[in-house]
Design a protein that fits this description.
Blueprint lengths: L8 E15 L2 H9 L7 E15 L3 E6 L5 H8 L7 E6 L3 E4 L12 H11 L4 H15 L14 H13 L5 E5 L7 H16 L3 E5 L3 H7 L2 E6 L2 E6 L1 H13 L2 H12 L3 H8 L16 H6 L15 E4 L4 E8 L5 E2 L1 E3 L3 E9 L6 E10 L4 E7 L6 E2 L4 E9 L5 E11 L4 E14 L16 E6 L1
Parallel strand pairs: 3-7, 3-8, 5-6, 6-7, 13-20
Antiparallel strand pairs: 1-2, 1-4, 8-9, 10-20, 11-12, 11-14, 14-18, 15-16, 15-17, 15-19, 18-21, 19-20
Helix pairs in contact: 4-5, 8-9
Amino acid sequence: MSYNMKKDTIICLKDISKVYKLYSNKTDRFKEALSFRGKKFHKEFHALKNINLEIEKGEIIGIVGRNGSGKSTLLKIITNILTPTTGVVKTEGRIVPLLELGSGFHPEYTGLENIYFHNSFLGYSNSATDKKLDTILEFADIGDHIYQPLKTYSSGMKARLAFAVSVNVNPDILILDEILSVGDVSFKRKSYSVMEQFFNQGKTIIYVTHSLSSVNDLCTRAIMMHKGEVILDGPPKFVTMNFQKFMFAEPEKQIEILDIMRNFKKADIEKQYSEINNSEKHSDEPKKNKSSLLNEETSYYLPSLRSETSTQLNNFNLVLHYLTIYNKKNIKVNVLRSFNSYQIKISGTYPKLPGEVRYIVGITDEKGKSLSWASTPENNAYHNVKDINFNIDIEFKCLLHSGNYFLNFAIRTIDNRILYRETDMYLFKVQNENNGFKKDKGGVFDSSFCFKLK
């Protein structure tokens, strides 16, 4: 089977499946091989089921899913480590995989010897590696351990060395399988910086991780897998939001959620979950001079500033009456000022007493990155609910730069079950008095909470 890839496509998977034969014992394998009637003594395990994917140059793809969902198998097929049972894989350019710690390295060789050993498989001569050696050693930053056998390395040291070697051989496609889950903060920061540089250079990165925040922060596209299938493929925030909804749902509801996800259409995804980047898009405010708005003492409320990406998980049939931000004059607002104080008010009704619970409120940015959160009543303790009606007041000092943000709300039981969870529940805008509606270059900074239960 042959086919042509589109101009900007660098990886194309067509009808990819991977099936393993599972035998109860060793003798069954021989019985099957010697059976004249072709009797089967095995069960089939479908690690991948009819995967169709096209990945373009310059994309950073985050793949999420439970353990055993087929993520690592998919990467090994893309890198030609595994052969698919059915289907065709086509790639262009140099692929550098980081699939397992120490893969492509020899445990008895020193770190220095392994640099040359690994690069030789990638087609680099010793003289070519000599030119890159100082850069590799500086990035790995493992000191004199570079002269010790790899088998003496910690997992973090192996990750440092593997990543340093791989990113310095100028790959067209970099494939990472949880490699950034090990190592210290300094190493992770350097690694993420390199990934961003690769993206700016038009490199392609495929990234398997359990860190949903890093997917939202780094990736241009995300894929959710479950039992060998691609369930969702779309904007990172859309995929991670729905993956969390699936993961936190009660087991009996997960099948229903998966069916709903499978039926999402591309047009629906783009319409409902596209990022809200243009602040003017939500503005139906009176035609005022923006400078006059900044001189007003109070914040204000824009009716059109509403969340388009809210996702709710209600495992307890709870009725949430409202979650709203109020200013000091007890006026409902969704356009806030940096450094001003506000109140977040929440009210709801339980169908019955849930026992001990914890209320959690958090702020995320438009990419879904968590910026600040707090739980009640205090110190992550639990509140013994004695009335089916609850009201919460949260003192909130807005220490955020200009931009759009979301409030998220959850209720957990003492045994860590989720009774209620809603992401992107309340959209609000922050204006900095120094620059009005413009986005600050300094990023975001924390906000402080103080819970009060009524």
